[in-house]
Structures are given as C-alpha cells and as structure tokens.
Specification:
This protein has 205 residues and is an alpha/beta fold. Helix 2 links the parallel strand 2 and strand 3. A five-stranded mixed β-sheet has the order 3-2-1-5-4, with helices on one face. The protein is built from eight helices and five strands. The chain folds into two domains: 101 residues, no CATH class; 96 residues, no CATH class.
C-alpha cells in the first residue's frame, strides 16, 4: 500500500466534493497532521480524523481508493482519557475553501492525543511536535490534568500523586480493559515521560 500524504488526501477530498456535492469539515488527528506542525512526517497509510457529518459516504469513497480510514464524530471518545475540553475550538486551519475545511489539533492537543494512546510511535510523534514548538512540561501536565478531569470515571484510570505528578493509563479503543490495567504504570506517564521531554525541549531553548 503506497504512503499517503496530506496533499494526496486533499486532492481526493476535493474530487469527492466535486462528485458528490457534499461539504467536508475534517479534523486530522493522526500522523497526516505532522507536516502541518512543521516537523518531518513519518510514513503513513491511513486517515485518522474527526468528521462533522455522516461518516459512511466518505469512508466508502476512501475505501474505493484503497485508503483505510478511522473516522469518528467524537475523537475524545477514542480513549478512556478524554481530550482536553475545547480541543475543537483550538484546532488550526490547514485547508479552508468553499465546501472543504480541514483542520489539525493545536500542537499541545496533538501531544495529549498521542499520549492518550501511548504506543512507541505515538511517543515519537509527540516528541517531534513538543520539541519543535517548545511546549513546556508544565503545559503538558496542565493539559493532561484537564483531560483527566474531563474523563468519565473509570477503574482503568489510575491517579498517582508521587512527585506531585499524575499517572495516566496508556489506554485506547484498541486495548481491552485488562490490558489498560496492566499498562497503567508502564512506559509513560507524565512525570517520567515529561522529564524526557524536558531534556529534549531544553536542547532547543
């Protein structure tokens, strides 16, 4: 399957609008958004996005062009940890033209989105954006606290007050509840991973 670029996606969306007459309002939340943040983007073959409006017609169109798409009307619901409130309002225009509006998350919201899932490639993506935009550890932690506060109560969330930080489950819709529980204290969370961020960010400041 060939690598998908944002330019290719915009071309396809433009053709879809011309053929269907539909209006598209799309918020890119995955790796396709990386170059909009001014960082090198990694190889990507699918579309992760929040779509305002019916999902099925666009999903089917993308599938006919061999492009896997994971679309939702509520990106915050993809994890037991919600997105920080107001993430849609903070989204940044990427393409805005008649009938086509494509946005990306703010850089800080993108970092939180990646940390919500927390697999290795997500950490890499989050580091690239945090480092390029000089996002502070304090900002990451403050936004994370807002995300946790907005999350529905769930036993897979684990709060830890050691070192005045918070711990956070590496959980996504792709993990079972038992897997969420097992990974609660592994890999990242805000103190351990934020300290790594501090090292990389400070190198650019």
């Amino acid at each position: 399957m060939p690598t998908l670029t944002a330019e290719h996606l915009i071309d396809l969306l433009t053709r879809y609008i011309a053929e269907s007459g539909e209006t598209i309002d799309l918020l890119l939340v995955g790796a396709l958004a990386l170059h909009a943040y001014g960082v090198p983007h990694r190889a990507n073959r699918d579309v992760d996005a929040e779509l305002q409006g019916p999902l099925a017609p666009l999903m089917e169109y993308l599938m006919t062009h061999d492009i896997p798409a994971d679309l939702t009307q509520n990106f915050s619901g993809w994890s037991v940890v919600a997105m920080p409130p107001g993430y849609r309002d903070r989204a940044i225009d990427f393409i805005k033209m008649p009938k086509l509006h494509v946005r990306v998350l703010s850089p800080l919201d993108f970092v939180i989105a990646k940390l919500r899932r927390g697999i290795d490639v997500d950490f890499d993506d989050a580091l690239l954006v945090a480092r390029h935009h000089h996002i502070s550890v304090d900002s990451i932690q403050t936004s994370a606290r807002a995300a946790l506060a907005a999350s529905p109560q769930d036993t897979t969330l684990f709060f830890c007050s050691r070192r005045r930080s918070i711990s956070f489950v590496r959980a996504s819709r792709h993990q079972s509840r038992s897997e969420c529980s097992r990974t609660t204290l592994r890999g990242l969370f805000f103190l351990s991973q934020a300290l790594q961020y501090r090292r990389f960010i400070s190198a650019d400041q």
